[in-house]
Fold this sequence. Notes:
- With 75 residues, the protein is mainly α.
- The chain has a domain at 1-27.
- The chain is built from 2 helices and no strands.
Amino acid sequence: xxxxxxxGLVLALVIVGLLVKKQMTGMASSARPAVAAPAAGDAPVNxxxxxxxxxxxVKEALDAAAKTRQMPDDN
Length: 75
């Protein structure tokens, strides 16, 4: 009986390991940001401009998320 339990445990660990490996490889491929070609008119000229543009986009996204999470006051 112990042998059957040990085989079941090892089999379960192998299945979980395979699922984790599959999940991690899926996350690694989806975690890479998509690089979009900037429009000709608003393309950042250098790294500083690009960094400021990204900071502004993050700030706007956080502000929008905070607005949607605001709860009305309970009176």
